[in-house]
Design goal:
Distance between the termini of chain A: 46 Å
Structural class of chain B: alpha/beta
Strand content of chain A: 5-15%
Oligomer: heterodimer
Strand order of the largest sheet of chain A: 2-1-10
Strand content of chain B: 5-15%
Radius of gyration of chain B: 18 Å
Number of strands of chain A: 17
Order of helices and strands of chain B: HHHHEHEHEHEHEH
Shape of chain B: elongated
Helix content of chain B: 55-70%
Largest sheet of chain B: 5 strands, parallel
Distance between the termini of chain B: 31 Å
Number of strands of chain B: 5
Strand order of the largest sheet of chain B: 2-1-3-4-5
Largest interface: A-B, 42 and 32 residues
Structural class of chain A: alpha/beta
Radius of gyration of chain A: 21 Å
């Protein structure tokens, strides 16, 4: 398949020229509105988890037609990369139904997941946002010590090194990335999981990332974007090519911004699905996720963001045979660690994801916007809840996701939810790298309530 | 007259530049003053802003409405100048995302909300070096220089931009508004910025306060 990448990328040199603003307003947006109208697709707030296979199939058809109609915009050359229906079809026919991350005994296989699947999901744990350089190793070790975590993005950003703030394109960025890789590798070896996959993308610039490639394991990888919405650039293509050349993993995600250029939650579901298709055609990834976010509050756990997430995920799982995609919260919730809301946001995602055919994720609080906001208990919890909720069905999943939203949605509407919570060092023992009793008590309270809703959560509670 | 002004608001609410211009010209021909038409446009844009915050309308539609409003202003402004009936400006903002950061989503959201509140915003785009912020400020003489940085590692560049104005000796000529990613009020204060906003709504509220309209 990889022989085709340059065929598509070459179109960035020959395609129709257009300004980015004209692409956004005159081509992309009218086409999004048109395909949604054609299939009668509308946002129904109370049906946050899809209740109709036909609607989800129409989301997929609309996304397919959107991509075939308008293509992808290359910001670097200001040209359009057109993609035919045959090329989309061929990509999906050849696309793998399984993928492998990590190495050795820590290697995992991610398989296709049907909406009705009763198997436990794979879980991605993410460390995001700025981290105290002296604490990062402990945070990484805490993640390594969570057995239910399958793979990790150890993406804690080191904000300063040698007494200097780290900025993109500087030697300090290179030094910070090398330091981060050392901390991650030390934690993986010390924790006894040297092959646990790290697919972090902590640097802004490609040059900041490259010198640290030699510290990557063969089961590791990095992120490449389809820029929102339906855009790419030579920078992104270069990142893809670099990872494929190194025989490392390439991952990326549909990241529709709901309320922004992606439009309503239903428009965004179509856009997000089209972005996944574009990603598969242009980049041939090893791993995929979706990360719709509310563009007003940048929440991945709002009703609108979850609606987009679940409809896109359901459309994808029903209409492709690819390995399972990981859904929201994609490792980032609004509330900080050590709060009830942190768990309810994770629960909503896990319950919905497994019932539409997605995998689950968790970990970082505070919208990844504050220092030391990552704790692995969120990912553990997502795995437990996702395993218990697998096979519940769309109707029950919708009921439970709505109940979870009732626990925190008002604080998203008032844009206050990010103000709660504690930093890693205030809710984890930094010697044992285990959660404090206060944190475990909150975790167990939420689990108890979920048991009362009928979820079977049989695991030991520390 | 009221019907004609309502038609102006309706055309703007349909995010249609051609229809807005038609409605503006029809209102003027029907006897409305340029200032009355201007006020109707501002009222219509404010309503669009409220719908935007509630996700009733979306960024592409707000951007289209902004284009329509600006085109209408070009018709109205010479008439208002001649009549010496210029409205009080809300304020001018020079806005960009810092060098090294190519995220435009946050910036575009804030600009759209600011436009709905009557600000005149000069969008410098993304990956903008400090010198470009400075040159744009000297050219447009804005009330506010707004600096967005989304990535943890691009946030320090907000300080570089404030420092550049300091080095040129005219930081005090402007108000500085920062936001994005893991910025916070303490960071804004540390680098000598005058305001901070977490999101589009808060940033616009702060901007209104900075120009004495909040």
């Amino acid at each position: 398949m990889r022989a085709r990448m340059f065929d598509y990328w070459a179109r960035a040199e020959t395609g129709e020229m257009m300004s980015e603003k004209d692409w956004d307003l005159e081509l992309y947006w009218p086409a999004v509105v048109e395909v949604c109208q054609k299939y009668g697709l509308e946002y129904v707030p109370e049906e946050v988890v899809p209740q109709s296979n036909e609607v989800s199939d129409n989301v997929f058809k609309a996304a397919y037609e959107l991509l075939a109609k308008i293509g992808v915009y290359c910001q670097s050359s200001e040209r359009i990369i057109k993609i035919s229906e045959n090329e989309i079809d061929e990509t999906l026919r050849l696309f793998p139904s399984e993928t492998i991350l990590g190495e050795g005994t820590d290697q995992i296989t991610i398989k296709h997941r049907d909406p009705e699947d009763t198997h436990p999901p794979n879980v991605l744990a993410r460390i995001l946002g700025p981290h105290d350089p002296d604490l990062l190793y402990k945070v990484c070790l805490a993640y390594v010590k969570e057995p239910r975590i399958d793979h990790v993005h150890f993406q804690g950003v080191i904000p300063y090194i040698h007494g200097i703030n780290v900025k993109p394109g500087t030697p300090f960025e290179i030094a910070a990335e090398i330091r981060r890789r050392h901390e991650v590798n030390a934690a993986r070896y010390d924790g006894g999981r040297p092959g646990l996959s790290d697919c972090a993308s902590a640097t802004v610039s490609l040059q900041g990332q490259m010198p640290a490639y030699r510290f990557m394991g063969s089961g590791d990888g990095s992120q490449v974007y389809i820029m929102p919405h339906l855009k790419t650039s030579y920078e992104q293509m270069s990142r893809v090519y670099a990872m494929h050349q190194l025989n490392r993993k390439v991952w990326g995600l549909g990241q529709a911004f709901v309320g922004g250029l992606a439009g309503s939650p239903m428009h965004a579901a179509v856009v997000c699905t089209a972005e996944l298709l574009a990603y598969c055609v242009l980049y041939e990834p090893t791993y995929l996720g979706i990360w719709p976010a509310d563009a007003i509050y940048f929440a991945t756990t709002s009703r609108t963001a979850y609606f987009t997430n679940f409809y896109c995920g359901h459309a994808w799982a029903r209409n492709t045979g690819t390995f399972a995609v990981t859904g929201n919260p994609w490792g980032i919730v609004c509330a900080g660690p050590c709060t009830h809301e942190y768990f309810w946001e994770h629960a909503a995602g896990a319950i919905g994801n497994v019932n539409v055919g997605l995998n689950v994720a968790g970990g970082t609080g505070w919208q990844s916007g504050q220092v030391n906001g990552a704790t692995p208990i969120g990912a553990r919890f997502a795995h437990e809840v996702g395993s218990a909720a697998a096979g519940l069905g769309l109707e029950k999943a919708n009921e439970l996701v709505n109940k979870c939203l009732d626990k925190y949605e008002d604080q998203i509407v008032s844009r206050q939810l990010h103000k709660k919570g504690k930093a890693f060092q205030d809710c984890y023992d930094t010697e044992s790298c285990r959660p404090t009793q206060e944190y475990l008590d909150i975790y167990n309270e939420v689990k108890d309530e979920l048991r009362g809703w009928g979820l079977d959560l049989p695991y030991l509670d520390d | 007259m009221a019907d004609a002004l309502q038609s102006v608001k309706d055309a703007l609410g349909a995010f249609d530049k051609e229809k807005t211009l038609e409605a503006v010209n029809a209102a003027l021909e029907g006897g409305a003053s340029a200032r009355q038409v201007f006020d109707a446009l501002i009222e219509g844009m404010t309503a669009i802003g409220k719908d935007f915050e509630k996700m009733i309308c979306f960024l592409p539609e707000v951007m289209k409405a902004t284009d329509a409003m600006k085109a209408a202003f070009e018709v109205l402004m010479p008439i208002m100048v001649e009549a010496d009936d210029l409205p009080e400006k809300v304020g001018t903002v020079v806005f960009g995302t810092v060098k090294g950061d190519i995220h435009n989503v946050g910036k575009d959201m804030v600009i759209s909300v600011m436009n709905t509140q009557g600000f005149d915003v000069i969008d410098l785009g993304v990956d903008v070096p400090a010198s470009k912020f400075y040159e744009a400020a000297e050219l447009h003489k804005p009330d506010i220089v707004a600096i967005c940085a989304i990535m943890s590692s691009t946030i320090p560049i907000q300080k570089d931009i404030v420092d550049y104005f300091l080095a040129q000796g005219n930081k005090e000529d402007y108000k500085f508004l920062v936001g994005g990613g893991s910025t916070n009020p303490a960071w804004a204060e540390k680098i000598g910025a005058d305001g901070w906003g977490k999101d589009a709504v808060e940033a616009t509220d702060v901007a209104l306060k900075l120009v004495g309209k909040g």
